[in-house]
Design brief:
The complex is a heterodimer of chains A (about 375) and B (about 220). With about 375 residues, chain A is mostly helical. About 50% of the residues of chain A have low confidence. Chain B has about 220 residues and is an all-alpha fold. Chain B folds into 2 domains: about 100 residues, Rna Polymerase Sigma Factor, Chain: A; about 90 residues, Orthogonal Bundle (Arc Repressor Mutant, subunit A). Chain B is elongated. Classes of the chains: A mainly alpha (about 375), B mainly alpha (about 220). Chains A and B meet through helix 1, helix 3, helix 4, helix 9 and helix 13 of A and helix 1, helix 3, helix 4, helix 5 and helix 6 of B.
């Protein structure tokens, strides 16, 4: 009998052996029941593994596209050069387009104005604060002269994901300009109504100028604080807006529904009112998004960090009474407490983890009971 | 839009279109082309189409939801940045899954990952209850399989996931993970062998059921 194929059985199973090797293994299999059985078992392992379900927290896939969207809009590593390049381009645009813009419903831009005081100085503004629509749907005139500038740049360094993931909260929380995002979302929504679905993503310059005149037709005033905004912002947003790509129905539905849901939450409104910087309920909803993202990204490398994170999740769950996100927050609060205990063995964390876990499991139809049980299994 | 429960999410993952070199449909090529031209909504649609599959790839390798979440987001960002270099005639799924697998492996290798390793992961929680066909034995076997997968190195899991779930060739896996074909072969063989040994008590029943299922 030829020697047992050993390691090669796996490659044989995948049809990845050379013809000669394959023939050899086949010859052996005809004579060797043990290897034949082993091959069958290897195949069964694959089949069995395919049956193993993969679970994600409830609501996860409803939220993920929005989170990816938010990050695509504000690439954290876009070169800083881009910002002044955009500013320069915008200044040029200002001269050309501003006269048109100024006679058309300036108040649409109010949220941008309220955002300005949060940004310390133009030089310190990370690329993330460039109005998002401008970044991804630049008017042709901008796109032609500065095509590379505002777009997401291919990241040259290959292995930076890990560092970035860790730093995301630090980098993004202050850098985030939630109002720009809101502006983008609301603008996108309005444009969906204003433009036919087949509108090209990038219109030629004359069309862009024309669109500036046409687009605001359906816009309503949102705030009287328009006086403080700059001409450059004016132009950036106004000229970018008509370029918004046609909306896919799904995306619209999701953003719209989220915004509505958030607006209906008094607790959330109360919470965001403290910051005082937000003129519109959308902005507050966005703060909730922001807060959630920040918590998700927050590391818990020590017991103290994990404990604090657990508290933060619990607060979050309390502020956002219903829905998948609140549920996820509750579960994460439990996991954080478990982690705190694992890292520090402080009995208080143990008690906390158990209390939260028990409270969760006592809920009727706790959506993530299995996950919570798994987390609690790590406790003594 | 329906909100799948946790288990629904699992089923939805299994319901993904078959992997492999199937020709991408024209609608997808169009979406990708628009996304490449900066249309965020088109890209959004791409994310929605592939998020479950990419997440499954990531979580099967990293074994933790929060890390898988980071990997998935990063994979889509990288894909978005690299769309200009992507050949639209090729299927998007295997490509993005390769990106995700590479990121996942790199994450698991990172010092940060070692620091934050949890004692117990729960990427693939054995399903409780389920259909009447899913007996105690099967639940046990699933637990055993999950544990055995846990016991593999992330490198082994990555190779196993790309082969068994994404059905990539050894050459494609080697490229995705930047290793040699020989290494793919040996890691896969070792991974399967470990799983096989761990599952030996249950494989007989599983194979019998497959035969049964096939005959029905």
């Amino acid at each position: 009998m030829s020697s047992h194929p050993g390691d090669r059985l796996s490659a044989f199973l995948d049809g990845e052996l050379s013809a000669a090797e394959r023939a050899e293994v086949q010859g052996h299999l005809r004579e060797c029941a043990a290897c034949t059985r082993e091959l069958e078992e290897l195949g069964a392992v694959d089949a069995f593994a395919r049956e193993l379900p993969v679970e994600a927290p409830a609501g996860y896939f409803e939220e993920l596209p929005g989170r990816v969207r938010a990050r695509v809009r504000r690439p954290s590593r876009a070169p800083r050069m881009a910002l002044w390049a955009v500013a320069a381009a915008a200044a040029v645009m200002a001269v050309v387009v501003t006269p048109v813009v100024l006679v058309h419903k300036q108040d649409v831009l109010a949220p941008v104005a309220t955002a300005v005081p949060e940004v310390p100085a133009p030089a310190a503004v990370p690329p993330a604060t460039v109005p998002p629509l401008l970044q991804y749907s630049p008017p042709a005139s901008l796109a032609d002269t500065n095509a590379a500038a505002p777009r997401a740049q291919p990241v040259p360094a290959k292995r930076e994901a890990d560092a970035r993931l860790l730093e995301r909260e630090k980098a993004d929380a202050p850098a985030e300009n939630p109002l720009s995002k809101t502006q983008a979302q609301t603008a996108g929504r309005r444009d969906a109504a204003a433009l036919p679905p087949a509108a090209p993503a990038v219109a030629p310059p004359p069309a862009a100028a024309g669109a500036v005149q046409n687009a605001p037709a359906g816009f309503e005033a949102r705030d009287a604080g328009a006086a403080t905004r700059t001409m450059a912002e004016n132009v950036e947003v106004q000229s970018a807006k008509p370029q918004a790509p046609p909306a896919q129905e799904g995306a619209r539905e999701e953003t719209g529904a989220d915004a509505k849901k958030e607006r209906a939450r008094p607790a959330e409104r109360k919470l965001a009112a403290g910051s005082g910087a937000f003129a519109h309920p959308d902005d507050r909803a966005l703060m909730t998004d922001k807060r959630y993202e920040a918590l998700v990204a927050r590391p818990a490398a020590s017991a103290a960090e994990a404990r604090a994170l657990g508290e933060a999740w619990e607060l979050f769950a309390r502020d956002v009474p219903a829905g998948p996100r609140a549920d996820e927050a509750r579960v994460r609060a439990i996991e954080a407490a478990v982690r705190a205990w694992t890292l520090g063995h402080d009995p208080a964390d143990l008690t906390r983890a158990r209390a939260r876990g028990t409270a969760y499991l006592e809920m009727e139809n706790a959506p993530q009971a299995a996950r919570v049980r798994t987390a609690l299994a790590a406790l003594p | 839009m329906d909100v799948p429960s946790r288990l629904d999410a699992g089923r939805a993952l299994e319901a993904r279109p078959p992997a492999g070199p199937a020709a991408p449909d024209a609608a997808e090529a169009d979406l990708l082309a628009r996304a490449r031209d900066g249309n965020l909504f088109a890209f959004d649609e791409i994310v929605k189409r592939y998020q479950r599959r990419v997440y499954a790839t990531a979580v099967r390798i990293v074994r933790r939801h929060d890390v898988a979440d980071d990997v998935v987001q990063e994979a889509f960002l990288r894909a978005h940045q690299a769309l200009g270099r992507f050949d639209l005639a090729r299927p998007f799924g295997p490509w993005i899954c390769r990106i995700a697998a590479n990121l996942a492996v790199n994450h698991v290798r990172s010092p940060q990952a070692r620091e934050e390793a949890l004692p117990e992961a729960h990427a693939e929680t054995p399903v409780r209850g389920g259909s009447p066909l899913v007996g105690v034995l099967e639940t046990e076997a699933r637990t055993e399989l999950a544990r055995a997968l846990e016991g593999l190195s992330a490198d082994q899991r990555a190779v196993f996931v790309l082969r068994v779930f994404e059905e990539l060739s050894y050459k494609e896996i080697a490229e995705a993970l930047e290793i040699s074909i020989g290494t793919v072969m040996s890691r896969l063989s070792r991974a399967r062998e470990r799983l096989r040994v761990a599952l030996t008590p249950y494989l007989g029943a599983a194979m019998a059921r497959r035969v049964e299922g096939g005959e029905r």
